[in-house]
Automatic annotation (TrEMBL):
UniProt cross-references to NCBIfam families, sorted A to Z: DapE-ArgE, PRK06837.1
Similarity annotation: Belongs to the peptidase M20A family.
Keyword field contains Metal-binding: yes
Listed CDD domains: M20_ArgE_DapE-like (cd03895)
Listed cofactors: Co(2+); Zn(2+)
Native organism taxonomy: Bacteria, Bacillati, Bacillota, Bacilli, Bacillales
Organism, scientific name: Siminovitchia sediminis
UniProt GO molecular function: hydrolase activity
Keyword Iron: no
Pfam families in the record: M20_dimer, Peptidase_M20
Cross-referenced InterPro entries: ArgE/DapE, Bact_exopeptidase_dim_dom, Peptidase_M20, Peptidase_M20_dimer, Peptidase_M20A, YodQ-like
Root EC class: hydrolase
Region forming the signal peptide: none
Protein name: ArgE/DapE family deacylase
EC number of the protein: 3.4.-.-
Amino acid sequence: MKKETDSALEKVFKQIDASWEEEVDFLQKICQFPSTLGNEGPVQHFIADYLEKEVGLDVTKVIPDPEKLSSHPGYSEADWSYEDRPVVIGEYRPEGEKKGKSVIFQGHIDVVSPEPVSFWKHDPWGAEIVGNKMYGRGTADMKSGVAAMIFALKAVRDAGVKLSSDVIVKTVTEEECTGNGALAAIEAGFKADAALIPEPVLGQKGLTAQVGVIWVKVKVKGLGAHTERADKAVNSIMEGYKMINALLDYEKELNSRERHKDFADHPHPYNVNIGKIHSGDWPSSVPSECIVEARVGFPPGVDPQDVKDELKAYLLAAAEKDEWLKENPPEISFYGFHAEGFSIDPNQELFDILGEAHTAAVNEPLETGSFTATTDARFYNLYYDIPSTCYGPTGDGLHAPNEWVDLDSVKTVTKTYAAFLLKWCGYSN
C-alpha cells in the first residue's frame, strides 16, 4: 500500500512541477484584480469560470444575506451592500462509493487597501516577480494560498488520480472585516469533515489558537467655530485624542491580566489598533466632530459582546473624568468584526494527516502555533464541530506597503495540500 501511495504522490508532485508556470500565471492574474471591500465581484467571477472550465468542478455562487445570518452568534454587522459580491464554491464529487473523508479548502480574495501607493516600490496591482518573490497587494494575504489550494486539487485530477471523497473549494469575501462570506457559505450547506485555510499567518505551521477581535467606533463632539474664536471653541480632534488614550489604556489593562494558555509566552498578545481618524473639512475651522475607529483583540473563550460592554463602560468612565466629555459623552458603537477567538487540540487526526503531508513535501515535522489576530477558521471550530486550521505560504508586508510572497513556499503549500488530499480523502488510480 505504501508503494502505491508513494507512486501516486510522486505522480502528483511531478504534475505540480510541470504546471508550476501555469500556477504562477494564475496567481498573477488574480492578484491584478483590485479586490478591496466592495470590489470583489470581478475576481470572483474569474475564479468561478476557472474552477468550472479548467478544474472541472460544479460551481455555485452564494450572496451573503444579512437578514438570514444576523441571528447567528458568529455574524458581524456590516453597513454596506452585498450585491454582486458572491462567495464562490467549487465541488469535486467522487465517482462511485465514497471511502475517505471530505475536506474544505477555503481562501479569501478580499484584500485591504494599498494606500498610500506612493510608499510602494512595485505596482500594488502589478504582481511583479523579482527573484523568487511576487510583489503586490494580496500576494501573501492570501491569493497565493488560493492558487495553492486550487492547483493542489487540479494537479491530483490532471495526474489521473481519483479521490474517494468530496472536496469543496471556497473563495470567500470579507475575511478582512466580518467573515460573513465564510459564514454564508457554511450556512448554505457547504460542509465537510475538516477545513484547511491557506492563510500566511504562520507560514508552513498549523494554527491551534487565535484571539477574538471587535471593531469599535467612537464619535466625539466638539464646539465648532471660526479659528479666530478658537479659544472659546472646543476642538473635537483634541477631545478625540483623550478617547484614543483611553483605548490604549484599555489595551494595557487587557495585557496585564492572566494570559490564556496559548498566549502565555507572548509578550503582548492583545492589540488595540487605532486604525482610522476622521475629523474636520477646513484648516481654518475648529472641527465639531471627530470619529475614531479601532480594532481590539482579546483572549479565546471570551464572548465578543462582553468585551463590547466592558470597553464601552471603560471609555465612558474615562470620559467622566473630563470636563467637556462628561457633559458631552462620546457616542460608542460597534460594527465589522464580532469575532470570538478559539483554541483547539493539535492531537487530532486533522493535524496528524497535515503533518504527514507536510513531511512528504519538505521532509520535516509539522510545527504548530497561535496567532494574535483572527481568521475564518473560527467559524468551523466554534460553531460547526468541523476541525479547521491554517497552513499557508510565507511572505511579508501584509497590510503594509510592498507586500510579497515567497514563490517557493507557494509550491511547498501546493504539494502539502495535494499530499493531504491523497491521505485524507483516499484515492484510486
